[in-house]
Design goal:
The chain has a two-stranded parallel sheet with strand order 1-2. It has one domain: Winged helix-like DNA-binding domain superfamily/Winged helix DNA-binding domain (Arc Repressor Mutant, subunit A). The chain starts with a helix and ends in a 6-residue tail after the last helix. It is about 50% helix and about 5% strand.
Length: about 100
């Protein structure tokens, strides 16, 4: 039986270059609509092991939510290198860049 974590990892791995998803969006698709914090935990603890494109996951406001300055700049740089425009220091236009699997 596939776990929430397994489903979340598969969803994260499926985010294409130049697109983003939110923590809550991933949690919902993985079967736990209130599991956004679990997505944060998965990204923090499993990104290297599973080669997850962690930089393509942002908060529900369309912001880069990482507080660590070095990681924030790394995420912003990775997104920009994929063609994602970052406005006002940390905002991403979700209407333009949000990935919706199955669309």
């Amino acid at each position: 039986m596939e776990t929430f974590t397994d489903r979340a990892i598969a969803i994260i791995k499926g985010i294409p270059e130049g697109r983003v998803m939110t923590y809550g969006q991933i949690a919902s698709l993985a079967g736990s609509p209130r599991g956004a914090r679990q997505i944060v935990r998965i990204l923090h603890s499993m990104s290297k092991k599973y080669s997850l494109p962690w930089h393509r996951v942002i908060n529900s406001k369309g912001e880069i939510g990482i507080k660590d300055e070095e990681a924030f700049h790394a995420q912003k740089s990775f997104l920009q290198s994929e063609g994602v425009e970052v406005y006002e220091h940390c905002l991403i236009n979700l209407e333009k860049y949000r990935f919706n699997p199955g669309d």
